[in-house]
Amino acid sequence: MIYSGFFMHHAHSVGFFRSRWRGEAVAGTLFWRDMMFVGSFVNLLTGFAALMLVVQGTVLWLAALVHFACLPYNAFLMMALWRTPRCSQLMRWTSLIWLALMTLI
Asked: What is the b/e burial string over 60-77, where b = at least 16 CB atoms within 10 angstroms of the residue's CB?
């Protein structure tokens, strides 16, 4: 019983990724909430953390590792959006631009 919360949370996170990969998520939710708000916020946090590491004089490879840590998640969000059946062309191309910007920033 003690670990039931962990397994329920794990099942929810697997469901989160699975539903997006299968194209079952609403395109607007995936685009606006998951990508533009949450994804951008996480990218800004890791970018800030990487910048703080550089300012503190740590090795550059560690700062780069922190900066690019979100890249697999960003690519997942973009590919999941492209797989969503009701995704507009504008959303698709905007997500591609977003991925490029989040990789650079």
From this structure: eeebeebbeebeebbeeb
How many domains does the chain divide into?
A: 1
pLDDT, tens digit, for every residue of 62-92? 999 999 999 999 999 999 999 999 999 999 9
In whole angstroms, what is the distance from residue 47 CA to residue 102 CA? Answer: 9
Nearest to 94 by CA among 70, 77, 73: 77
Domain interval for residue 42: 26-104
For the segment 27-41, what is each residue's pLDDT rounded down to a tens digit?
999 999 999 999 999
What one-character-per-residue DSSP string does 7-59 give? HHHHHHHHHHHHHHHTT-S-HHIIIIIIIIIIIHHHHHHHHHHHHHHHHTT--
